[in-house]
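Quality-control log, excerpt.
Job 1 of 2 completed; input and output follow.
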Amino acid sequence: MNDLPINFEEILETLALQGGFNTNAVILGTTLLGIAAGVIGSFALLRKRSLTADALSHATLPGIAGAFLIATSMGYSGRSMPLLMLGAAITGILGVACIHLILHHSRLKEDAAIGIVLSVFFGIGIVLLSLVQTSSSGSGAGLNHYIYGQTAAMTRSDAAIMGTIGIVASIIALVMLKEFMVVCFNETFARSTGLPVWLIDSIMLGLVVLITVSGLQAVGLILIVAMIIIPPAAARFWTDRLWKLVLISALIGGLSGYAGASISALFPRKPAGAVIVLVAGSIFAISMLFAPTRGVLADTIRRLRLKLLIARDHVLESLYEIESDIEGARHPNASIMLIKLIAMRGWITTSNNTLALTEAGRIQGQRIHRNHKLWEQYLVSYADIAPTHVDWSVDQVEHVLTDELIAELEEALRVRGITIENGDPA
């Protein structure tokens, strides 16, 4: 099949899993891998083990090449998928063990330990891979595809193994959801309740190993870590709840695997691993920009609204202080646009280029002025801050005081015999 043209019917057939048995198997396998990577990656992210997963993935290369060399030297097929996965798992775990040994027996920080293990193991793997490529058997051709991934080289049995591992890993993670959650959020509490933290950590790491080795042929050892990190990182923009994080991460991972494998099937010259990661990266970018609570756009709007609220309140408070002849009243400094916005709310009038509060505006100004004095008196009385040093802090807080917090402040001051009437302490 050529890259172009691709007609609409072919796209629908591929997306509807009608593109052939082998193609369907690969798409389903990568989808299940993406779901599992999203689930397991959620705990790796919360446990701050994302970089460890990166080192683990690079440490699998010597295991792949070593397993091939050992198998061929003994007269067996070196291209056996289970055999290569076993070798990858062994050296991956060995790499993580080396990281822990370096951390416990040296003064190096975790990032340095990960960098050392990652580079050394990957270098060993490249050397062994060169031996494979120059071997007389010639059966090692294409083994370097495990570095970048190549779904075209996958068989139905390879896809079935990958999908099965993904299902098993997801089930184990969901069964141990409570234990993982406790260890991720409060390791000290987990130890105090008698939970075997070391065992739970080992199971968590074992699941990362499973996902890593199962996705080597589809995504490659360099990019498989992206499948573990990107979906939960993207999901984090959408929720603060763990179970929702796991669910959304699984959906993003599954969608990335499904879309990436489908695109690769339609355009065979496009490497599926890279396309899968690009789809996941695109979803991450969309999440970072447009998530309703944590996204950049929402955060920017929230900050602008807060700045507008503060500026508006300062104008109302200044006008109230001026009209009430309060000592230290400040002249309002506002743009024409802000003045128009406040006037639209019915809080001020602007006749003859003079600003004046309406009755509703005076009520708002009095409330803001009172909140200012309330918080000021609280800081002076309870935080032992000099009255001349509290003004800036008060200016930032007075605008966001809730009715509940105001009631608490009033009660705390009342205990000390201080009351605030119309903004003036008594």
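Job 2 of 2 completed; input and output follow.
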Amino acid sequence: MINDLTIGNPLTLIIKFAIPLLLGNLFMQLYQISDMIIVGHLISVNALAAVGASTPIYMVFLMIAFGFTGGLTVLTAQYFGAKDYNGVQKSVFHCLLACLTLSILMTVGLLFFLGDILRIMNIPQEIFSLAYDFMFVLICSYPFIILYNLLFGFIRALGDSKTPLYFLIFCSLINIVLNFIFIKEFRWGIVGSAAGTLVANIISLTICFIYMWKKFPLLRLQKKYMRYEPEIMREHINLAFPMALQYSILSFSIMIVQSVCNSFGTDIIAAFSTAFRVEQFATQPIIALGLAMATYSAQNWGAGLLSRIRKGVGYAFIILIILSVFGFLLIRQIGESMIAMFIDTGETSQANNTALIIEVGRQYLLISTLFYFFFGLIFVFRNTIQGMGKPLLPVLSSLTELIVRSFAAKYLAVVIGYRGIMYAGPLSWVASGILVACGYFYYIHKFSKTGYFKIGEIKQQLRENQPVD
């Protein structure tokens, strides 16, 4: 359902928009957690380590795609907020064209250089072939995931966060079932996990496209708008490229940390991989809040309503404090039990130490939970700034994360061993969170007296039948 976020109570709108995003993200995490549980129990800890060691590679390029599609659809949301429906149609066509090009280039390039990338990542020899087979099949799913995410971006740009939720639930459930069948019944091993992702995304993309075509007439391309216009494409790329760069920098920093982690052996790899999954589960409410702020700020920026953006950010900040405390308390209570779920504790292989894996993962969570508030600062302020169409500061904040996270991981790992890796993420959150928060207030001050936003406020008051100031 199309939803105009430029009118109504900001707190109510943000919460209603964020809840479906949260549920969708939780189902995605449920799939990923279930996948690792299936791999850890039905195959081996080595297979679990292979998934954990290679997944950051997959995530780097997946996040590039997410950033790229997110940047493209910011303009779609701004056109919708400005009630420029011709602009929405043109935006949809150019977004599709850009994503088709990206998906082909990315997939072919990754398949060609996969072996070299795995060697750069210090993948241990005993799990190298497992990681290669897993990644090869997973990379083949990129084109479908990119287009799938772009369709979600279109729908969210129109203020609808419920429809993507339904498809995420559908895709996640299919993924879990297929992974179990391919691994348990077909005995495809680790390849079965990647094949489940590939098939599930093909099915979900097809159904989502058919549904969007029928239910969202505004997104149904008309022939007269299917014409390449260099200026319009340039506008989209000017937002999409910095956001893709931002996400790639962030993911690359995580890949560097994983590379350091890989040098400590399969037990430590398995420990950090499972702890990261638990952390991702705990931080999904914060991530959903940030995604909601991106669409909220984009629509209101397009409508020239800067005061509504400020008001929405104020409410989001209060929600962030509540979510940070909730995540801290929750993971302190159940984090260790969740880590244990990933591992077959009955496995007797001397090569793997189950108790060590659980303890290392527990130690990591005890540290990271202290910094969830700063993690949230990044998502609230960075996504708001992105929605405003200002990509430079988010890129700088990601560079800050890269520098701090990489330096902390490499330096502290030398000084205090694998425990040093536990501080890399939290320290980067503090540095980047403070930077992007300060940048947001700079932008708000800079644009508060701009004539475009004064006109937008007057139009809003007239639309709501309020006296004009």
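Post-run check on job 2. The chain has a mean pLDDT of 85.
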